[in-house]
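Quick look at the format.
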Amino acid sequence: MKDNSRSIIEDFSNELFYEIFNYLDGYQIHHIFSNINYRFQQLINSSSLRLKLKYCSNNSNEILRFNKEQIYSLSLNESFSIDLIDSLFIYLESLRITSINSNELLLFISNLQSLPCLKSLTIKMSQCNIGYSQIYYEIFSLKMLKYFKLSIDDYSGSFEFSSFNPNKQMSHLEYLIIDYQCFLPAITKILSYMPSIHYVSLMKLFYYDSSLETNYPSIWPNLTHLSICLTTWNTMFECIEVLISKIGSKLKVFSFKPYHECIEYFNASRWENLILKFMPQLDKFYLKYTEDVDRILRDRDNDEETNDFTRSFWIERKWFLEIEINNQNILFSILPYKKQWFHEENLFKLNQLVILRININKYNYFIQDDINRVLNFTQIYHLEITKENLFIGLLLQITNCLFELRSLKIHSLLLEDGLRDLNLKEISILYSIHLTSQIKKIYLRNLTNIKQIDFLMKFSPYLSFFKIDYLHNSDILSILRQINHTYLNSLCFHVPTADDKMINNLNKIISHEKLLVNYKIIRQNENIFFNWNLLE
């Protein structure tokens, strides 16, 4: 039996093993396969095999010493000698380093000129005192480089950028990610030497009012993706408007996150005008704005239309509002549409609230101030609560504030709380919920007690779709036998072990016990869907 199994493995083609190797690190490949037999030794040492390697001095020295010509991707996650990289890395395309001294940086980058195929370079440093000009002068010498990301935790170098000879120092970079405090005038000078640039991310932009005087060269004709995260408190919206008016005509993707709490950055009308006037090709828009809950009502514009992100302009472009509550902060996000589990067909009712941390008092009663503030801003139709073991009393209180709620996603439920039982108000909500509830879809991540099914059936009298990820000690048939609901006609279970045999067995038992009428079972990867009461 063992011989048969071995012969089947030996019959696998080299191409198939190369596909398998694509999912493994170079060290794993050598550690697992090098001592099996002669064939595998030849296979992993073949010039046709390309390796990606996360370098660790304890186990990767031998691979780097004898297999340089096979490595196409290399991550150096600890201190290393700058002589480690040499011209023998003839196929190295991607290099990532996360530990290099400031005084070695320029020499290291200069040595990379010996790599004929290097297209991607990522450098992360804790400190750096080298000026912009020196760093980018060396980067521009890497003629094949298309992607460059530089992250510096503590930058103390010069922000001045000396001029180069444009005839000699043009860069072919297409992607630039700057993850250190940078000034807009210096960045514009850098970008003026990158005529091919189309993706720019400024993760810590220091933008002050005098930047309004910055000259924006017309040499950015290919810039289509721009991401900005401000690090200054006093940057006025006018500064962003000026910047976009100069460089926004070709933008297809724009992401913006201000640093400070200023409600003008969340002015829907102002963004709408800016996009219509200066970003006619914009396809995806990302806006993140964090506000202290105590300031939302106080600082809001009295004209509610200026803050209305549910107008047709936003809906037509499929850009939607998502709100997260986390302790004392509320994060407002405008995001491009992506398919959600609740499959909302009405595009005007996609606003979603995510509660990461529930505001409760010492008696485990919900404090609804946060939700009241959100509702003064916009209506909520879809709710997600990430808290594990959510007491049903809190769930009743929270959902009672959201009369327009159409879907609910929760992690797990707790039917009994050690601190208290359901109070009279919560019991009243539960018994009158058939008059107020509009929830038709529920997603429960963890079912820990089958009695939770009974509660959710009462909690959502008009439920039509119910999804469960993890059943734990329950099984599908027990749940099907438990359900007695007028409107429910669709169930989804996440079952990693699902296969055709399981589906056939379920079909037989359901038909024999007549658990469902006019039903259909569909398996999609690890999900099993039950739909019933179907029209014939």
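Next, a different chain entirely:
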Amino acid sequence: MVHVDSRMALKSVNRSRDLLAAGEIKERDPGYTRFVGLMKILLPAVAALVLGLVLIWPQIVGRDERFRVSFSNISAKDVDTLSMVNARYFGTDADNQPFSVTADTANEASKGAKAVELDAPKADIMTRDGQWLALSADNGLYSQPSSTLDLLGNVNLFHDKGYEIHTTSAQADLKMGTASGDDPVRGQGPFGALTADGFRLYDKGARIVFTGRSHLILDPKAGMPSR
């Protein structure tokens, strides 16, 4: 005859019931297991990030303060001269017509000076009737208070009417619309070609006087140039 202990049987039944319940929970909620696994990865990573910020933040703040102090200690007196790339200057002449001066680079002639040394300067002047006069050179010196431009090296003057003048140096008053030069001049236009010892340009090119020994070769098809 077989005797069964009722207490042991009850424990066995309860254990089986617990195992079945746990299995049902796992089958019923698989996302819970994934959530727990994800938290096991994320929580240590977040903790490490917070700890890292706590350690390096004082160094970041201290570095910022060092930069701030170093820049604040620089004054205008410590800067020799100012430079500018792709410089542009704008103004209006005596007739209230716009003009502009551009250059590849502009360097302050001396500390605090109102004159700038220009590389590859170009000046454009508008006339009252909507035409334009353009000047260019290898180098130049532009005075902002007086709006004067000294040009040196491969100086070229182009007018909208179709003539051009080439020389080695010239001085232009952009405010008054005048220019002059005392170096040999070569010029050409619809009327022909000429050479001279110098030139004087007035009223933004409306009148040009060639000085010294001048030689003019007329184009028979063009006739005499207008005065």
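The first strand starts at residue 83 and ends at 92.

See the schema section for token definitions.
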